[in-house]
Amino acid sequence: MSARPKKSFGQHFLHERRYIERIVSAISPRPDDFIVEIGPGEGALTFPLLAAAGKLTAIELDTDLIPSLQANAAAIGELSIVHADVLKVDFTAMAHRHGVSQLRIAGNLPYYISSPILFHCVDHAAAITDMHFMLQKEVVDRMAAEPGSKVYGRLSVMLQLACRVVPLFDVPPGAFRPPPKVDSSVVRLVPLAAHERHDASPERVHAVVKAAFAQRRKTLGNALRQLMDADAIRRADVDPKARAETLAPEDFVRLAKVNVDQHL
Fold this sequence. Notes:
Layout: E1 13-14, H1 17-27, E2 35-38, H2 46-53, E3 55-60, H3 66-73, E4 78-83, H4 91-97, E5 103-108, H5 114-123, E6 128-136, H6 137-144, H7 154-160, E7 163-171, E8 176-177, E9 184-191, H8 202-214, H9 220-223, H10 230-235, H11 249-257, H12 260-263
Helix pairs in contact: 8-11
């Protein structure tokens, strides 16, 4: 018997086999991978991933779904279910607790809370090999947007400073039960290696990016005036008359590093 999707949890259960197979193929699970699935739902991805890897940890908030997941997984592999809000799960501690260096994360994310989940995962990027997520297509477009695009913004910059963002393919509403009112996309996120990451204060970068995009029509000189003056912006090799959407991610890092002592 199928579970009734709960609107309060933003549940849309993937059911169309060809898209399930494409997602599993994109993840390419290997035996002994430590895979963590966010929001397994009815197990459409859970069971094929479990069959390929032999074990899997699933994070599920809806207690009504857990008994069926456990029962159906029993003959497939070792399924561990963490009943928790994913935003409260410490992925770094999870990796250490299980004696693995890195996790692989996957999931059909609830669209209403997808950005907070993405930022939470990025906070633990050093403990993650890769991430494969199903998201609203509009969100994936923003994640992968380049400077100058109308959808380039805070999400684009913060994710691209931490990961390589690779959109994979779109999934139509009819592949879900119930069908969402938007198209979906699958995206791959690969955290940058240690030598590729910036060395600026994460808090400072966040503050600069947030202020720069708070009012997109403002020039940087106006948008960042609470953090730095026009001369400081110029010392970062950035034009104070430019607008945030024209800057590359690395430009924000330079802005975050200039005059740090004076403007914290």
